[in-house]
Write a structure and sequence with these properties.
With about 120 residues, the chain is mostly helical. It starts with about 30 loop residues before the first helix and ends in a 9-residue tail after the last helix. The protein is built from five helices and no strands.
């Protein structure tokens, strides 16, 4: 009778280094000097399209919009704005909350309100 096969049987076996064998080549001194050189990289910060005079939105409003983003009953929200999602849910007869639409129309210029939680992630 054969022994049952294991998942590790499908991988090639590797020889292990025995005791007393050197762990490998050491780096040359030239390579060590190259590692010590630090390269300064300029970090670019993403500019926020919000106008500097525009006040931040109310935390209660942001919480309401976050809950709208997290409720899957109105469909997916990646790749579209919150208003587009609200309108699509209305067309499909999903009855999205009216105060969400009012808030989105009132704060149309504010990206914190316009875009969903996942707008920075690529599709």
């Amino acid at each position: 009778m054969e022994q049952p096969r294991r998942i590790t049987d499908s991988f090639p076996r590797r020889r292990r280094r025995g005791p007393g064998r050197p762990p490998g080549r050491l780096k040359d001194k030239k390579d060590k000097d190259k590692d010590k050189v630090q390269v300064k990289v300029k970090v670019q910060v993403r500019d926020c399209p919000r106008a500097p005079s525009q006040p931040p939105p109310d935390p209660a409003l942001l919480e309401m919009l976050r809950r709208f983003d997290l409720s899957w009953e109105y469909g997916p929200c990646t790749g579209i704005t919150r208003l587009q999602r609200w309108e699509r849910a209305q067309e499909l007869g999903l009855s999205p909350p009216g105060p969400i639409r009012d808030a989105l129309l009132e704060h149309r210029d504010n990206p914190d309100v316009t875009y969903s939680l996942w707008h920075e992630y690529e599709l």
